[in-house]
Design goal:
Elements: H1 8-19, H2 21-25, H3 39-51, H4 57-66, H5 69-72, H6 81-89, H7 93-109, E1 123-134, E2 143-150, E3 156-171, E4 179-184, H8 191-206, E5 213-216, H9 223-231, E6 235-239, H10 245-256, E7 262-268, E8 271-284, E9 292-308, E10 311-325, H11 334-341, H12 352-358, E11 374-376, E12 382-384, H13 389-411, H14 413-417, H15 422-435
Parallel strand pairs: 1-5, 5-6
Antiparallel strand pairs: 1-3, 2-3, 3-4, 6-10, 7-8, 8-9, 9-10, 11-12
The structure holds zinc ion.
Zinc ion binds next to strand 3.
Length: 444
């Protein structure tokens, strides 16, 4: 008989055979002394919480008390979300990052990144994202900003808002789009500083040729970023906006004097794009760094049919984009630079948007946890360990994200046969844990 739904045992066989998940779980550690519930069980509890798409630690708490999840993750007894919090606040981030790196390496070896290559090349993107914000709860590593709000009487008031922001590097060309690494902004520093730290760390984690092309927002059109990209042996496509004034102006001046190099029309569902492209090499990047770069400009008219007062009318809008790139014209024609430059992956179902919409990414899971394990410092005082809670939770989320999407898109025959969404697969795995008799043991 054909299987009707996914079960946790078959998902686990795939995780353990393909990615050695239980072996990795055994490497986890935290700051507690002789804990009754092991860091491995804490990791597996939260990992499954994300796989099942549970919305909060309270929901996971409920699962641990009322389903077979407790047995499945190797815990001797049920435990509450306060144990999860206390453990995760002092969690060691290294084994988590090592697991994420190992998952991505295995995905690459398993040819998960072969589909969708651009001229045979692998493409990653760097992006910043806000993880949570609050007007009341704060921790020692919160970023701060002043925000203008309206009070109930409609008067403007200024309040301090606390938030966390990170820069992530994600594979984007292939159907499976895992994150390679994430770097948190420290209080007082800009996103570009965190991005440089991430780009410096990536080759140490993965080797420099894990991907070939890096896509970057206009914020990163800076000499230090370009230098680091070159040093690591990557190519880049960077959005160009008015903040890179000299290069932007000289490109516009040059392109204004000549007809487009390429023109074509592109049909995308009920939208029609009329595209004109200009392409030049040898413009100086900045006055201080006159290294010649290639610039591509796209002028696009988007034609749409819209209903206005019951009548179908044509509606057109103009759009302009510029990109600076290190990719050579011969191997990467102008239209390919446009394709790379357009951030289409952002709207797809397993990018940042998916994380924020469907993966409880914005939940404050462990923000500002005051109850933490203590350690004796050099002056012989007992002090709480520094809080890694949020970073640990997000790493576990990214591990679950990578593995779940790889399972749905590359492994599951049921997902293909029954056209299941990732959320439906999550629901099937979750249902298995709730309805299975307690005699079934987790694999050793
Ligand atoms: Zn904080």
């Amino acid at each position: 008989m054909k299987e009707r739904a996914h079960s946790l045992p078959s998902f686990s066989v795939w995780l353990n055979k393909g990615f050695h998940l239980r072996t990795h779980a055994g490497q986890m550690s935290d700051a507690r002394t002789d804990p009754e519930i092991s860091p491995s069980s804490v990791f597996l509890a939260l990992f499954h919480g994300f796989v099942f798409r549970l919305p909060s630690l309270q929901q996971l708490d409920h699962e641990l008390a009322h389903s077979h999840l407790q047995r499945w993750i190797g815990a001797e007894r049920a435990f509450r979300d306060d144990t999860l919090r206390y453990s995760l606040c002092g969690f060691d981030l290294h084994p988590l990052e090592a697991l994420l790196v190992d998952v991505n390496r295995r995905l690459k070896r398993g040819k998960a990144f072969d589909a969708g290559r651009v001229q045979g090349h692998l493409v990653a993107a760097l992006d910043g994202i806000e993880v949570l914000s609050s007007f009341s709860r704060r921790c020692e590593s919160c970023l701060e900003r002043r925000v203008t709000l309206l009070d109930p009487a409609g008067r403007k008031i200024v309040q301090t808002q606390y938030y966390h922001r990170a820069v992530g590097c994600q594979m984007v060309h292939s159907p499976v789009k895992p994150f390679l690494a994430i770097e948190w902004l420290q209080p007082g520093e800009g996103e570009d500083t965190a991005a440089l730290r991430l780009l410096t760390r990536l080759p140490a984690l993965y080797g420099s040729r894990f991907f070939d092309i890096l896509l970057l927002d206009a914020l990163y059109a800076q000499t230090p970023v370009l230098k680091l990209v070159r040093k690591n042996g990557w190519d880049a496509v960077i959005s160009l906006k008015q903040n890179s004034r000299d290069l932007y102006q000289s490109a516009l001046r040059l392109f204004a004097t000549r007809p487009p190099d390429t023109s074509f029309t592109e049909q995308c569902e009920h939208k029609t794009y009329r595209v004109q492209l200009w392409d030049t090499q040898g413009l100086p990047f900045t006055i201080d760094n006159p290294q010649p770069v290639r610039v591509v400009r796209s002028e696009e008219v988007l034609d749409r049919q819209r209903y206005r007062q019951g009548e179908l009318t044509a509606h057109s809008t103009d759009h302009e984009w510029l990109w600076v790139t290190t990719l050579p014209q011969q191997a990467f024609p102008t239209s390919v630079i446009r394709q790379l430059g357009h951030s289409r992956w952002k709207n797809e179902n397993n990018g940042w948007m998916d994380l924020t919409k469907h993966w409880a990414f914005k939940h404050g899971f462990l923000h500002a946890c005051r109850h933490r394990p203590t350690r004796t410092n050099a002056s012989n005082e007992r002090k709480p360990v520094s809080n890694h809670g949020l970073a640990a939770v997000i790493l576990i989320l990214l591990i679950a994200f990578a593995l779940t999407w790889a399972f749905v898109l590359r492994h599951s025959k049921l997902a293909r046969r029954d056209r299941l969404t990732a959320i439906a697969v999550a629901a099937q795995l979750h249902a298995w844990v709730s309805k299975t008799p307690p005699s079934i043991r987790a694999p050793d």
